[in-house]
Amino acid sequence: MSQSLLTFSDWSASSIQSLLQLALEVKQQPQRFRQALTGKSVVALFEKPSLRTRVSFDIGVNKLGGHLVYLDSQANNLAGREASQDMGANLSCWADAIVARVFSHQTLEQLVAASKVPVINALCDLYHPCQALADYLSLAEVLPGKTPSLGYVGDANNVSNSLMLLGAKLGADVRIVTPGGHQPATNMIAQSQDIAAETGGNITVSTELAALEGVDALYTDTWLSMGDETPLEAIKDTFAPYQLNTALMRQTGAQYVMHCQPAHRDLEISSELIDGDASLLMRQAENRMHGQNAILISLLERK
Predict the structure, then answer these.
(1) Which reaction does this enzyme catalyse, per its entry (predicted)?
(2) Which domains does the chain have, with CATH numbers?
(3) What's the pLDDT at 1?
(4) Which of 123, 131, 179, 237 is the most exposed place for a label (fewest CB within 10 A)?
């Protein structure tokens, strides 16, 4: 079984730093990598709809000289049609890697167990490692040579889990601020804090906006994750004080604003910030491709 990327929690800090460096090289010197995946085929298996993930993987693989096959389950669970382990075993007969965007982390684990090729988590209910890599790549570009401090505000979810875990690996200062009852799972906090204790990082979880003061960048995500059918009106009053806006930027002193997108303008984040000079949103989106390409190169070299 080849090494996969389901979450960065089982990657060493040095391997992650090497991956970030590789991503920068892929971005800055694309001509060096035009044949990196020549003769390689990647299957993209999507249970959930996507803009950035699908397009960035498809175009990214093409830029590396490879071939991507997109399989769309039309937002239905893949396991409902065929057992995940059977899909993993079949796909690894032909493909050199599997990229999977799924509802359940368990589906990814089943694909890995049955597959002879690397499996890359393009999003599940627990993690979004490709997004987190693009985010820390973006921070490395605008804060060169500095270990960043990042404040996440809003609803804890797969993105905040990956920001905590990857940030802990990198020795970063990551602060998660949510309304009461919307914090990360206890095991996610404990795992991230244990890693941070080894790397010199810091993981803070709070319900108080004051905990964000002094961070380099503020980050938010949608208040309702994809597939969550909770009416917006049922949670709007709870989350409104946690909106990422100019007032919060001033209060915290943050230089930059981040969002993984899709963004709901003037709900979790103000349009003024999305379109303003402090916004890293388009840099994050572009870096999805470069980070993912670095992951593919790294994993396929190890096969």
Answers:
(1) carbamoyl phosphate + L-ornithine = L-citrulline + phosphate + H(+)
(2) 13-128+285-301 (3.40.50.1370), 130-280 (3.40.50.1370)
(3) 42
(4) 237
Query: Which pair of structure tokens corresponds to residue 123?
Result: 């999003």
Is residue 75 pLDDT above 90, yes or no? no
- Mean residue pLDDT of the chain comes to 94
Identify the H or E element spanning 139.
helix 129-142
User: What's CA 80's distance to the chain center, in Å?
Assistant: 26
Residue at 49: amino acid letter = P
- The stretch 39-47 carries a mean pLDDT of 96
For the record, the structure tokens of 276 come out as 């303003």
pLDDT classification of 224: cutoffs 50, 70, 90: confident
Residues 17, 167: contact at Cβ < 8 Å?
A: no
β-bridge mates for residue 72, sequence order? 46
For 64, half-sphere exposure in the C-beta direction (CA atoms, 13 angstrom radius) is: 29
Strand order across the 119-123 sheet: 67-72, 41-46, 97-101, 119-123
